[in-house]
């Protein structure tokens, strides 16, 4: 297995065979975001997006927590001559981050260790698969400082758990345990703390061996479903299936099924090379 680690800095990068692990690395601040960590994570995600050898991404946190959201020490009004423009912070950093995660044409796994609070919780929820340690907690902490849920939280929470529960989480700031998050349908899996990263690596390896192009199209279909009518979604399924059917992975999947063997997907975009003709 190839293994390429980039040590130090606000985001640790570990490039493994088929996937990349990105670790938020400000453990003394519970991995709360400052500008440098934002820039490092954006750069790492851009690199993963353009790397054909990377077919899945894992995001986790160093130390005892996943991410405490924004480092409020960097946005403290008492240290400023005028109120901070938090909308600018969202426009420059958080909104592009959520858009990048959602648009990435390969699976993104959040491995949540410990606390995921504020924007940290919503960044995790914006990923495709969320695996949490049993001790993890999800906290919509915005109300504790007079703010509204951001980083997609006001959109994601009602979609995932319904308006009643979303409002309760946002207006009380009550921590939600990993077990409750699973039972509410907020996240996918909860595992024992000591098994979190083993599980994340196992899932990432499986996804890295899967038909990546088709998974990217699947991701696109589910994201569009929130806004589409049934007729619009049926049309989108038709168009995406047309694209998927032209991929080498589809040809390989059919061959493997008929030959009763395990498929060997390459994950690339359509490069159909069939020789039988037809439409």
Describe the structure.
By secondary structure, the protein is of the alpha/beta class. It has two domains: 3-208, 2-enoyl-CoA Hydratase, Chain A, domain 1, CATH 3.90.226; 212-259, Lyase 2-enoyl-coa Hydratase, Chain  A, domain 2 (Orthogonal Bundle), CATH 1.10.12. Helices cover 43% and strands 16% of the residues. It contains ten helices and eleven strands. It has helices at 35-50, 86-103, 119-125, 153-161, 163-172, 178-183, 196-208, 212-225, 230-245, 248-259; strands at 3-6, 11-16, 19-24, 57-61, 65-67, 108-112, 115-117, 129-133, 137-139, 176-177, 189-191. The strands form two sheets. A seven-stranded mixed β-sheet has the order 1-2-3-4-6-8-11, sandwiched between helices. Helix 4 crosses helix 5 (163-172) and helix 8 (212-225) packs antiparallel against helix 9. The longest helix has 18 residues, at 86-103. The protein is globular, with a radius of gyration of 20 Å. The two termini are 39 Å apart.
List the helices and strands and how they pair.
Elements: E1 3-6, E2 11-16, E3 19-24, H1 35-50, E4 57-61, E5 65-67, H2 86-103, E6 108-112, E7 115-117, H3 119-125, E8 129-133, E9 137-139, H4 153-161, H5 163-172, E10 176-177, H6 178-183, E11 189-191, H7 196-208, H8 212-225, H9 230-245, H10 248-259
Parallel strand pairs: 3-4, 4-6, 5-7, 6-8, 7-9, 8-11
Antiparallel strand pairs: 1-2, 2-3, 9-10
């Amino acid at each position: 297995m190839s293994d390429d680690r980039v040590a130090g800095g606000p985001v640790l990068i570990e490039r493994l065979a088929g996937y990349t692990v990105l670790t938020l690395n400000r453990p003394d601040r519970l991995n709360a975001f400052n500008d440098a960590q934002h820039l490092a994570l954006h750069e790492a995600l851009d690199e993963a997006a353009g790397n054909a050898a990377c077919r899945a991404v894992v995001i986790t946190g160093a130390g005892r927590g996943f991410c405490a959201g924004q480092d409020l020490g960097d946005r403290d009004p008492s240290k400023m001559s005028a109120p901070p423009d938090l909308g600018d912070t969202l426009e420059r950093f958080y909104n592009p981050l959520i858009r990048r995660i959602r648009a990435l044409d390969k699976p993104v796994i959040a491995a949540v260790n410990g606390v995921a609070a504020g924007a940290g919780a919503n960044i995790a929820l914006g990923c495709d698969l969320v695996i949490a340690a049993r001790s993890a907690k999800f906290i919509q902490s915005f109300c504790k400082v007079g703010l509204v849920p951001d980083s997609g939280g006001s959109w994601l929470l009602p979609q995932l758990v319904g308006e009643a529960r979303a409002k309760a989480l946002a207006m009380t700031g009550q921590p939600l345990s990993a077990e409750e998050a699973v039972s509410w349908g907020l996240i996918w899996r909860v595992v024992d703390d000591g098994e979190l990263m083993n599980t994340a690596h196992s899932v990432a390896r499986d996804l890295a061996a899967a038909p990546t192009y088709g998974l990217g199209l699947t991701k696109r279909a589910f994201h569009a479903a929130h806004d589409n009518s049934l007729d619009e979604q049926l049309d989108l399924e038709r168009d995406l299936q047309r694209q998927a059917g032209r991929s080498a992975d589809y040809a390989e999947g059919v061959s493997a099924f008929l030959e009763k063997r395990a498929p060997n997907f390459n994950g690339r975009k359509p490069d159909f090379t069939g020789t039988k003709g037809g439409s």
